[in-house]
Amino acid sequence: MARGKNINLYIKDGISKCTIKNWSGVVYIVPRILVEVGKQIDNLNRSGVYLLLGTTEKDEEAVYIGQADIRKNERGVLYRILEPHKSIDYWTECVVITADNNSLGATELNYLEYRLHEIALDADRCKVTNGGSPHKGSLPEEKEDEMEDFIDYIRLVVRALGRKVFEPVVSRIPESFIGDHLFHSKGKKASALAKLTDDGIVVLKGSRLAEELTQSAPKQVIRLRAKFSDSIDSTFVLTKDIRFTSPSAAAGFVGGASLNGNDYWVTDYGVTLGRYLGDTPSEKLIKPGIQKDRP
Q1: DSSP assignment letter at 185
Q2: One Pfam family for this entry, by name (predicted)?
Q3: Angle in degrees, 0-180, between the axes of helices 141-160 and 106-123, rounded to the nearest 10
Q4: d(Cα 125, Cα 220) in Å, to the nearest integer?
């Protein structure tokens, strides 16, 4: 079993600071309206990498990933954020990662920026708005391994803070667990699979949506179809996994109508999502004859 980590959270003047014992890294979350306040924090005047998080005008969760070294005027990562970014005016908060021993030099920063950009793209949870791919730079093999350890801590803290930009929308699961995780859509107009996650429900790539919306389809369904139109091919099949915050939103998106998600999503054995969530493990009957308490 993996060992847990004790994350220390300190909040002052609306700015969050996170540290982990025996890790040199420091992670800050700074709301955009408090960036000026952040000037008083020494660590934010050091070298580091940063994420600018927000929502675009198309209602897409988005991130810009950058880095900054200390300049001759001793101004570091925060002052880089304060510079105008015409292409990233959507951001509402920034996540700043630096080191309390100021050990991140130019080569380390290049590597961190490159890898975090790569990880965010692979996760496909947010739209990455960088104009191009950052330069990886050149690090010795042993230094790359050290930076990968540093990145593991970054991902741990950023996720713990509720910013899941580096976490895949849906993780791969063992074949033996599928019955406990996947749900099918009801009806003949659509054929979709969905998976519960810790922050919503994900309709999986390859799911087929209902081609026509009902006349009584809610505005939310129409908006969601428009929002994810680039992920629906000409045969109404999804080309990527899409996360929804509620089962009913996912059901409406798939079925093109006003639908109750607790009734619309069912297991292979006919157990509705509502019953699955409401019953005790012994009553769920996901797979009759198979023990429910799996490792």
Answers
A1: E
A2: DUF4357
A3: 50
A4: 20
pLDDT in tens, 178-218: 345 789 999 889 999 999 887 789 999 999 999 999 998 99
186: left (phi over 0), alpha (psi -120 to 50) or beta: beta
* DSSP per position, 245-279: SSHHHHHHHHHTS---HHHHEE-TTS-BHHHHHHS
Sheet strands (E) in the chain: 7-12, 15-20, 25-31, 48-55, 61-68, 91-99, 127-128, 182-185, 193-197, 200-203, 242-244, 265-266
CA angle 110–111–112, rounded 5-degree value: 95
The radius of gyration of the chain from alpha carbons, rounded to an integer in Å, stands at 22
Q: Which residues of the chain have pLDDT under 70?
A: 1-2, 71-74, 86, 170-180, 279-295
Cα separation, 183 vs 195, whole angstroms:
6
Which pLDDT does position 180 carry in this prediction? 52
